[in-house]
Amino acid sequence: MTRSARSPLILVIAAGAALAGCSSGFTNIAPEPPQQQTRLGKASGSACGSLGLFGTATNFVPMALNSRVERAYGEAVASVPGATALTDITMKEDWVWWLVGTSRCVTINGEAIK
Question: How many whole angstroms separate alpha carbon 67 and alpha carbon 3?
């Protein structure tokens, strides 16, 4: 293989390796609620993450982005003393563009149970 033919191949391999590192698996937001449960009241939690570097078309640097739903759920459960899970969950996501990226915030609301 000639040197000029190897350059695009190396670039494709490097880009593929970089993009493969920016992925995450599915997250189970809430565990299956038990059959016997005690309702404790309304709960709410929120968490934010950012996607940054340059303009919105080229955002590719995640900063606490992939775990924001899990963190918001944990904060909502912790907002009610004695709660172990949530039912009747709603999720809302807001985002804000800032000069070199975006911030994405998730708010989880639900009924706390134990």
Answer: 42
